[in-house]
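Query form — protein Helix-turn-helix transcriptional regulator

QUESTION: What is the three-dimensional structure of this chain?
INPUT:
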Amino acid sequence: MSTTLAIAHTEAPAPALAPRERETLRHIAAGRTYFQTARHMGLSTHTVDAYLRRIRAKLNITNTAELTRVAIALGL
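ANSWER: The structure tokens for Helix-turn-helix transcriptional regulator are given below.
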């Protein structure tokens, strides 16, 4: 499945997210805390934070609201 998403104010497609990044994004967009996400995925909260920092860097976004918008756009 191709991950193509126009980022706000640009025409460039978003870089593809790794499967664990997509899963992390899905949990956060569903309203789970870092702790809940980490527990569900069998990770540490530091790893969840690292995944979200990586996602934000790839997609050039800075806040959770925008992460949620991206998750919805991706159908997560």
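ADDITIONAL NOTE: The two ends are 12 Å apart (CA to CA).
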